[in-house]
Write a structure and sequence with these properties.
- The protein is α+β, with helices and mostly antiparallel strands.
- The protein has 17 helices and 17 strands.
- Helices cover about 50% and strands about 20% of the residues.
- The longest helix is centred in the first third of the chain and has 50 residues, at about 140-190.
- The radius of gyration is 64 Å and the shape is rod-shaped.
- It starts with a helix and ends in a 5-residue tail after the last strand.
- It is an enzyme of class 2 (transferase).
Length: about 575
């Protein structure tokens, strides 16, 4: 618009200047015609007025002729403007041109529409002046027409430019702005942004390419996010502890099991030096070995800082990136505490079975050899030795029966003979059976039960559980201390507590009380005739009933065994 307005002003001034120059040139030619006609006259006093009147009418100018003394000798009297002619002649009289000045133009006013043209002239032997007055009143109309044409032309051009600009904006600018906005959104991570694809030209191709790029980026980011979530879930929920150390020795990745193993918090581990994090020297030594040798290392270590102590198998390996770039090491911690526990249980089982079997077999063999050596002839010795042999045989038989019973209960296909069992009635029967053993301790079995206590279960197996627990309670109780059995009804379960006031157990013994052949007081257990397998059998029977058994004990204060049984066994 600025260019068009400026161009209109310039063109208008050029047309105006050209028009004025053409008018002035015409007047000067007319002036020459009047001068030539004047010079043909014999004198100023003999001018032919009718000739000059006709000339003034034809030229549409006012002709005034002055003599040398500036006295008017002829005036056509034609009105060309509303200007005072006499006054203009007085002003011209003060600035008359010389013979060498030619035609001089004298403006009549400031609006550039009225002009006087003066020239020196000679007639015969006299000199004088010719004055032509011309009015350009139609110049304003010409200006208006020029500006009207320019306005129409420039308006049409401006409208066309606006139309073309709008087309360009719609066709190029807006698609490019939309593509730019989408590109900015993609740069910010918004991969769902899309632009319009409503054209088949270059901008349409650009929009299509950006949309394809956005879709590909969205798919890539989604797939990467899924893979990252899967990897994170795998790392966080794997059973082994994982830790990654960069080449500067700082921990850059750690998972939840590792924090659990070492009872640490992630803010105390992440981005910290492994030397400051690992308090166990064995772990530090293994990490340093991997750093120095760049070889895979596998070791078993014992973490004594935790309770209970943990046995870990640590696998360390270097991280080698592309082009053999050294990036750090990774350590994987496998918790093998259960394996170590099972291995120890197996060793203890073999040792205990060997020990338990060895004692009665040694006694039987020794007394048998003594009888064969001649003691059988002594009737008293024969009877005594045979009683000892029978007792040891019974003990061996009971051990074997308990082993078979435990093996049968632990079998995968072991099934219960289910039926409705009144726990209160069963406990009363067992209490009657244990009366003799309780009397030996000058104690009794106190039953604090809610009746009825009906559940679904195997009556014989449950009775076996109650007998075992009451036997242990009486065995490990002090004299004159009653054993109490309490019951509690829960929403869909019942809870039984077997309470004694005896020797109790240390805290570290509670986790092993249900192991085979484990004895808290080995001397008292063996004197009582126990095999050390009763609680292991009890635990398995309760678990087969979908129940739980726990133990709480303090040394010299007693022990509480708590059994929770469901009202209905889920088959």
């Amino acid at each position: 618009m600025l260019v068009l307005v400026g161009l209109g002003i310039i063109i208008g001034e050029l047309v105006k200047s050209y028009y004025l120059n053409a008018l002035h040139s015409r007047i000067e030619k007319e002036m020459n015609i009047v001068i030539n006609q004047t010079e043909r006259e014999p004198s100023f006093n003999e001018l032919r007025s009718e000739l000059f009147d006709e000339l003034s009418e034809v030229l549409e100018t006012r002709i005034t002729i002055l003599n040398e003394d500036t006295e008017m000798v002829y005036d056509s009297g034609q009105t060309v403007s509303d200007i005072d002619h006499e006054m203009m002649l007085d002003e011209i009289d003060n600035s008359l041109p010389g013979p060498s000045n030619g035609i001089v133009r004298f403006p009549a006013d400031t609006d550039d529409t009225n002009f006087y043209y003066i020239s020196n002239v000679e007639t015969g032997s006299e000199s004088g002046y010719v004055v032509l007055a011309a009015s350009f009143d139609n110049l304003e109309n010409v200006y208006r027409q020029i500006w009207l044409i320019l306005a129409i032309t420039l308006g049409a051009a401006l409208g066309m430019i606006i139309y073309i600009g709008a087309r360009i904006t719609n066709q190029y600018t807006k698609p490019i702005e939309s593509a730019t906005e989408v590109a900015i959104q993609l740069a910010k991570g918004n991969y769902k942004a899309r632009t319009f694809e409503d054209r088949a030209d270059e901008t349409g191709m650009l929009s299509n390419a950006i949309n394809i790029l956005a879709r590909n980026l969205q798919e890539m980011v989604s797939e990467q996010s899924v893979q990252q979530d899967r990897l994170k879930t795998l790392i966080e929920n794997m059973g082994s502890g994982l830790i990654m150390i960069d080449k500067q020795g700082y921990i850059v990745l750690v998972n939840r099991p590792f924090l659990t193993f070492f009872h640490s918090k992630i803010e105390d581990v992440l981005n910290e030096s492994y030397v400051d994090v690992f308090k166990n020297q064995q772990v530090n030594a293994l990490a340093e070995e991997v750093f120095l040798t760049e070889q895979r290392v596998r070791k078993q270590i014992l973490i004594e800082e935790t309770f209970p102590q943990k046995h870990l198998e640590v696998y360390g390996a270097p991280i080698i990136g592309e082009r053999s770039a050294w990036q750090g090491i990774v350590l994987v911690f496998h918790d093998i505490s259960e394996l170590k526990k099972l291995e120890q249980m197996r060793k203890d089982f073999v040792a205990n079975v060997s020990h338990e079997v060895k004692t009665p077999i040694t006694s039987i063999k020794g007394f048998t050899e003594t009888l064969l050596d001649g003691a059988m002839n002594d009737k008293g010795a024969l009877e005594s030795f045979l009683q000892i042999i029978a007792k040891e045989s019974d003990r061996l038989q009971m051990l074997i029966q308990d082993l078979l019973e435990l093996s049968r209960v632990e079998q995968q296909g072991f099934k219960l003979t289910l039926g409705q069992v009144d726990i209160a009635e069963t406990l009363e029967d067992v209490s009657m059976m244990m009366t003799h053993k309780a009397n030996q301790k000058n104690a009794s079995i106190q039953l604090d039960l809610q009746k009825p206590l009906m559940i679904e279960g195997d009556a014989d197996r449950l009775k076996q559980v109650f007998i075992n627990l009451l036997t242990n309670a009486l065995t490990y109780s002090y004299a004159n201390q009653d054993v109490i059995v309490k019951s509690k009804k829960l929403e869909d379960r019942i809870q039984l507590q077997f309470i004694d006031h005896g020797i109790g157990m240390e805290k570290e013994e509670l986790s092993r009380i249900f192991e085979r052949f484990y004895r808290v007081d080995k001397a008292r257990s063996r004197n009582s005739g126990g095999t050390g397998l009763g609680l292991a059998i009890v635990k398995h029977i309760i678990e087969v009933h979908n129940g739980e058994i726990t133990v709480d004990s303090e040394p010299e204060k007693g022990t509480v065994f708590t059994i929770t049984l469901p009202l209905k066994v889920n088959k």
